[in-house]
């Protein structure tokens, strides 16, 4: 009996987040009626621009004053009671996710630098053997962004734009920032090594 050679069928690498990581609702780090609340809305897209419907984003960020709710952050900057800076959202069937949070304050960077307001974001998705790490910066923080050491480390200025959430005008409720994550392709989001 001879074995027939050909293309091996593609196989999906788990985990399967929609099934195995239940998470009710969106990532609400603060209630939508918090006076500092913002909403980040985005999609996770593959290299062909198609939605990745079985994916998770996790966020970690400082509070509005620029302090992390972490034992190692001992700076004389106010903590915000009840704000731990962590959230998780599972993408829906169209690859969309929503995070309700606050715009963080500036935090110290390497040396004597200051980092622009940003949110650290991890992406977990079917087919990824390791999570992807990126950041969400805010396009309306241009002056701070021009001094941010991480943004300045990205040599191609056009690639920096993949890290900018853009404020969308109109609608009620908290301000909305749009931030799509492209896993591959010509518009691939900048990802960082841990």
Overall description:
The chain has helices at 17-20, 142-145, 149-152, 157-160; strands at residues 27-28, 37-45, 55-60, 86-90, 96-102, 107-108, 114-115, 118-125, 132-138, 164-168, 176-178, 181-182. The chain is mostly beta strands. Strands 1, 2, 3, 4, 5, 8, 9, 10, 11 and 12 form a 10-stranded mixed sheet that branches. A hairpin with a 6-residue loop joins strand 8 and strand 9. The longest helix has 4 residues, at 17-20. The radius of gyration is 18 Å and the shape is globular.
Which descriptors would you attach to this protein?
194 residues, mainly beta, ten-stranded mixed beta sheet, two-stranded antiparallel ribbon, globular
Number of distinct helices: 4
Number of strands: 12
Radius of gyration: 18 Å
Report how far the terminal alpha carbons are from each other: 49 Å
Structural class per helix/strand content? mainly beta
**What order do the helices and strands follow?**
HEEEEEEEEEHHHEEE
| Multimeric status of the protein | single chain
Content of β-strand: 25-35%
Largest sheet: 10 strands, mixed
Helicity range of the residues? under 10%
Mean pLDDT: 88
Instruction: State the shape.
Output: globular
| Sequence stretches where pLDDT stays below 50 over 5 or more residues | 15-19
């Amino acid at each position: 009996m001879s074995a027939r050679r050909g293309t091996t069928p593609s196989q999906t690498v788990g985990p399967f987040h929609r099934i195995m990581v239940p998470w009710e609702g969106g990532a609400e780090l603060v209630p939508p009626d918090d006076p500092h609340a913002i909403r980040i809305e985005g999609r996770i897209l593959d290299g062909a621009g198609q939605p990745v419907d079985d994916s998770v984003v996790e966020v970690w960020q400082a509070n509005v004053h620029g302090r992390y709710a972490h034992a190692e952050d001992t700076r004389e900057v106010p903590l915000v009671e009840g704000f731990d800076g962590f959230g998780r959202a599972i993408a829906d069937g169209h690859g969309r996710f929503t995070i309700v949070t606050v715009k963080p304050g500036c935090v110290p960077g390497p040396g004597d630098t200051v980092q622009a307001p940003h949110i650290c974001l991890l992406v977990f998705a079917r087919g990824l053997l390791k999570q992807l790490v990126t950041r969400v910066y805010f396009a309306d923080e241009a002056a701070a962004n021009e001094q941010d050491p991480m943004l300045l480390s990205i040599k191609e200025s056009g690639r920096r734009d993949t890290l900018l959430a853009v404020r969308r005008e109109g609608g009620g409720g908290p301000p909305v920032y749009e931030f799509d994550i492209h896993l591959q392709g010509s518009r691939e989001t900048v990802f960082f090594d841990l």
